[in-house]
């Protein structure tokens, strides 16, 4: 009798999941962007929404929920109905790092979200002004050894991926330079241009137009391979620092209780949309690399980066706020 009831419950759950999946897209699907309009994450979210809509005919709406380092957006999606109609554009700097940087969060980063699909990645890049004496990271390392702590490197926020990569660089090269946190490129550029800081770290997607215009000069990118958008710029790996290879990624996540059938349908839609040649070309021209893949592959990448960056945060002595 108990086995019959268990089987019946399982069949009912499957049928409900299938029925819900069949309803997917009949009402608007909201993609929540954790940052303000006009930024890199917002632009990527809108590009993805348009690509999915073109592929499926679904009505995709992008909603910006900036604030608290992405926590406002993540909290709203964690609490949303798990029916596939509310998703968040998660990224390394919020869903991976925030659990290490905040004492109290309203969500559990692993229990309250389900990975749908990785969308894109963009390596970090270190840039200087065109007249800078530093032509590569070897020059920076040499100067940092001669004058410990004097060289200044701007990073987008304390505990950000850029901040943590700075700690990795200092450790790997056994050098000492000063990391200076900023809210972002717009705030850091005047200080870089005036010489108040020597170097700045941001994503290729953020800095590509400035590099192409000659406003800044690249030193090296952080990734396992060179950026297709900047094929002439070497990587830290090429320079002998194999542990400095973490690209920043973006990916869609759903509320944690979303049925697997809906996740599979969303995953298929994302992968088809981002495989279109025009989407790939558009992203590469903007400094991104298209990713895609299964929810399981996304979950693995997510956990690996959580563990790796967590170790760096502890070693750097960054306390949660």
Order of helices and strands: HEHEHEHHEEHEHEHEHEEHHEH
Beta-strand portion reads 15-25%
Order of the strands making up the biggest sheet: 2-1-3-10-4-11
What name does the CATH topology of the largest domain carry? D-Maltodextrin-Binding Protein, domain 2
The whole-number mean of residue pLDDT values reads 90
Assign a percent range to the helix content: 40-55%
Integer count of domains: 2
Describe the overall structure.
The chain has 12 helices and 11 strands. With 321 residues, it is an alpha/beta fold. The model is unreliable at 1-20 (pLDDT under 50).
Architecture blueprint of SSEs:
Elements (H helix, E strand, L loop, with lengths): L1 H22 L5 E5 L6 H17 L3 E5 L6 H8 L7 E6 H5 L1 H4 L11 E10 L1 E5 L8 H10 L5 E4 L5 H13 L4 E4 L3 H10 L4 E5 H9 L4 E6 L25 E8 L4 H15 L2 H9 L3 E2 L4 H22 L5
Parallel strand pairs: 1-2, 1-3, 6-7, 6-8
Antiparallel strand pairs: 3-10, 4-10, 4-11, 5-8, 5-9
Helix pairs in contact: 1-10, 2-10, 7-12
Quick summary of this structure?
With about 325 residues, this protein is of the alpha/beta class. The protein contains twelve helices and eleven strands.
Descriptive tags:
six-stranded mixed beta sheet; 2 domains; 12 helices; five-stranded mixed beta sheet; D-Maltodextrin-Binding Protein, domain 2; 321 residues; disordered N terminus; alpha/beta; 11 strands; 19% strand
